[in-house]
Amino acid sequence: MVNSxxxxxxxxxxxxxxxxxxxxxxxxxxxxxxxSYLTKQHIQLSIQNHVMKHxxxxxxxxxxxxxLEQSCIIQAxxxxxxxxxxxxxxxxxxxxxxxxxxxxxxxxQTGWVSVLAQAQSISLPxxxxxxxxxEKLLCNEDYIKYSTLPDLILxxxxxxxxxxxxxxxxxxxxxxxxxxxxxDGLAKENVLKGHFRGRRERAxxxxxxxxxxxxxxxxxxxxxxxxxxxxxxxxHYPYMNPTDLLKKNYPNILLLDGCAATEDLVKKLEAxxxxxxxxxxxLDASAWAPFVFTPADATGLLEHTMTRLTHLxxxxxxxxxxxxxxxxxxxxxxxxxxFVTSTRYLEELIKSSTDFLNKRALSEIQQQKKxxxxxGKKHRADDKGLVLTEQEICKYLIEExxxxxxxxxxxxxxxxxxxxxAFQRAIQTVYLPSSNNGSGTLLSPESQWIEALxxxxxxxxxxxxxxxxxTTQAIQIFKDESGNKSLEKYVVRVLCLEWLYxxxxxxxxxxxxxxAGVEDAVGVSEKDLENQKKISEDHQKMxxxxxxxxxxxxxxxxDLHQAALAGKKPDLFLSYFESSPPxxxxxxxxxxxxxxxxxxxxxxxxxxxxxxxxxxxxxxxxHITSLICFEYIYHNTxxxxxxxxxxxxxxxxxxQLEAKDQSKEAKxxxxxxxxxxxxxxSKQPVDLDLLAxxxxxxxxxxxxxxxx
Length: 708
Fold this sequence. Notes:
Elements: H1 9-21, E1 28-30, E2 37-39, H2 40-54, E3 56-58, H3 59-66, H4 70-78, E4 84-86, E5 89-91, H5 93-110, E6 112-114, H6 115-121, H7 126-136, E7 143-146, E8 149-155, H8 156-173, H9 177-188, E9 194-197, E10 204-207, H10 208-225, E11 227-229, H11 230-236, H12 242-249, E12 254-255, E13 259-261, H13 263-278, E14 283-284, H14 285-288, H15 295-312, E15 332-335, E16 339-342, H16 343-352, H17 354-371, H18 377-381, H19 390-399, H20 405-428, H21 445-475, H22 481-511, H23 515-522, H24 526-530, H25 537-550, H26 555-566, H27 571-579, H28 590-610, H29 618-633, H30 646-659, H31 663-682, H32 688-706
Antiparallel strand pairs: 1-2, 3-5, 4-5, 6-8, 7-8, 9-10, 11-13, 12-13, 14-16, 15-16
Helix pairs in contact: 3-4, 13-15, 17-20, 19-20, 21-22, 22-25, 22-26, 28-29, 28-32, 29-30, 29-31, 29-32, 30-31, 31-32
């Protein structure tokens, strides 16, 4: 009989929140009211059902429907590929085809249609509708668009009839000399609605109806988007200076370097800055600005908006309009005329850097101990050399805090002084109690460093153990005898050798009394020990030989070393893992394997997302995507090998994909492999469009695997 315990809603909510925070419940998102938790699968399904039912939806509408932040909806939409996304709107293809057919019918009936009027009637972005019509309607020769009147679409029949009518009227008017004189007189007497622009024979008659319609179109575009380029104004109405035209009709318009912005766009930026301030984060105003904005335009918009905010929060004005922005203890800050953040956010960054500063301080003390052993701790803290460089801070912000490189570079300049002060305080307090020794006494800085490195080595060894076992199991899937042998050699000569090196480092750490002893035993500097990625395979081999001389009585380790150098089969390592596993190894249960597989899929997805499209990254993108493809075909089968085996993986996966009715995907991988090999061998150009398709396919597979 199973005993059950009833939990209160408060306790249950607390347990779920802790699970989410600690990464055990990655698939759950809390609603805005905090009363419910939704799975990512439920969110995607709800979005799909709503959009399929109505044909279209806005991100705000979907956020209200599910009671979630809009950012959660945007993230879910990134994983749904069946819809068309434009700005904050989502459409089905059927919906798009429907209104295209409606517009086509209207043109056929009336002879012409205004794209702007149609965009306003169905609440669609004008530029998007114009692009869709260009692709799906104007490709037909039965329809025409003038470059000077880009808002109108005409049927060819209507166009031909209109041309004949105009030609007939002109021929009749110019049939007799008296008619020409009469037309000139009517224009001068202002009987004709319009006026001449220019002098004498170069004068051009501009009908009033044309002027009014073009100006109306310009301001409709301005109001719809919140901004307009001066080039667009000139293209639609070339008879007046664009800034004069805009200022005449919109006295409050903001004139920038290459375009103009409305009051609504300024207010949207104000609201975004308010959100940035309230949530203690940062904003890249240049990225937020419309894509047509030049850097000068984005800077001008931000400066204007910040000037307004400064005025609204000054002591002489009312503080009601922007509420919390008036907090004197939390000021807005602009960096490089581009980034907006707050003093509170910067303070949080400094507070979160405590561990980083403590490690850096410990490293500094250890280094100075070697060179200035006679100095006391207080004297060391006064050393003028004890400063943090902007490069160090920037690297920490990128790698540990996850900040974008451009913002990290900018904010590191501002943080250098306060973080250096905190760093110098850390040097005075770096000797902290530690429970690692179990005695409750204080550990020396060197002992703290050794204990921290031991923990890291144990984690690394456990991960390598799983990789070796699971990759060896996955190799059995391949039915290529020579390929299997090559893969097994990789496991032994690379993965097993790396495991042996790190295991010997761990043993050395367990027996060491100080850092100098570790450096001497391993033959590697303290800095390189902290950053294992810098140690080459050849250096690892020399370090193994050096450490085995110390452990010369351990026959098992020597046998493992010989097996790794021979590089044939990993059997001896697998036997060692089973018979003499270190006490920190996890039992490789089915759940552990599933979690390792999920971690691998997520890691491959992150690696793929960070790869830019270029000739140099092409092999990496194909390597990562081929591994993702293998995981897509064989679920719960972690498999980790180098890029050398991409041809083998693709060759094996091709028939498996074809069996899943994914021949196009198989061809895509084979074409990309042929292209990259041609580039490597004969420097043929890399097709970045093909590479982009490979990357997108890998991302789609990852998305599907994450839903399992």
